[in-house]
Amino acid sequence: MSTDAAATPAIATGRPAKRRPQRAKLVRPKPGRAKPRLPGRLWNDVLGDRPLGGRFRAARRILCVVVFTLLCIPVQGVLLQFSGPAKNHFARFYFHTLCWLIGLKLRVIGRPPAGPRTLYVSNHTSWLDILVLGATVDARFVSKSEVADWPLIGWVAKLGRSVFVSRSRGRTGTEAQELRARLDEGESLILFPEGTTSDGARVLPFRSSFFSVAGAASRIQPVTVVYDRLGGLPVGRRDRPLFAWYGDMETGSHAWRLLRRTGTRVSVVLNEGFAPDAVPDRKAMAARVGRSVTETAAALRQNREVMPRAA
Question: Is residue 118 part of a domain?
Answer without folding.
Answer: yes
